[in-house]
Amino acid sequence: MNNAREQRNASDNRDYMEVSIYRVRHRDLLTLCVLALLCLGAIMVQSASTQLSGEVKWGWSQRGTRHLIYVGVALLTFLVVGHIDYAALARRVAIWRAPPVWLVTMAAVMCAAVLVPGIGREVNGARRWIILGPIQVQPSEIAKWSSVLFLAWWLARPPLDLNRFFLGFIPTLIPIGVLCLLVVIEDFGTAALIGVCSLTMLLAGRIKWTHLAIVVPPALAAQTLIPAVPSVVVSALTARSNSTKPTRLRDSSR
User: Fold this and answer.
1) Integer distance in angstroms from the first to the last C-alpha of the chain?
2) Chain centroid to CA 67: how far?
3) Which residues contact 166 (CB under 8 A, 6 or more apart)?
4) 221: buried, middle or exposed (CB in 10 Å: 19+, 13-18, 0-12)?
5) pTM of this prediction?
6) Which residues contact 154 (CB under 8 A, 6 or more apart)?
7) Are 223 and 180 in contact (CB under 8 A)?
8) Minimal CA–CA distance to 114: which of 147, 146, 151, 142?
9) Exposure on the CB side of residue 135, measured as CA atoms within 13 A
10) 83-120 per-position pLDDT tens digit
11) Distance (Å, rounded) from C-alpha 2 to C-alpha 220?
């Protein structure tokens, strides 16, 4: 009996060791990566904002302290969101009642609103922020997360058939295309990131390569040309106004 008990304890210990050390769960690995990135970011911000002085002591700069506050808020948000059952997003409800649809719609509205003078705040020649009281919101960041959640929800819907071009593939791309076109005007890098993440998720969803070959070249051309449209329009209006000034002067002299 003692031998059987010892074997059972050894088996339990072996299973515990395998689970706790050698078999790291994916969510635990992701958590460690997130915490490591937060710590690295705080150190890098503090290092970049430190000013040289004759005093030999350690002290956080104002920017480093503010970043630590952001890190604390991020950790609190991480803990709160970790207790939310994300499976609730997969419930079969009407499309207009699904939370991912509302989220991607809100992101599109905010990305459009940030382009309106008086609503979006312009910094260093780029209008990317919306002021909401004491905080600044960057709609392109909301667009990144909403596109991922929307695609994850949309690709998991049973009636969806990505093999059908007009009834399955194109409706999947419309919300993502709208977000990319709104974001690329002021932030090409974020729009490219949304496009790459969406493409990766679509490939995981086993879409046809022929469908991609039809859609990707026009999408790349649009993302390349659309950021130049505002400057071209401004240049055309400026040239037109300059060309009409001499005519008005001649008419006034007569």
Assistant:
1) 120
2) 20
3) none
4) exposed
5) 0.65
6) 100, 160, 172
7) yes
8) 142
9) 6
10) 888 777 777 777 788 888 899 999 999 998 888 888 88
11) 71
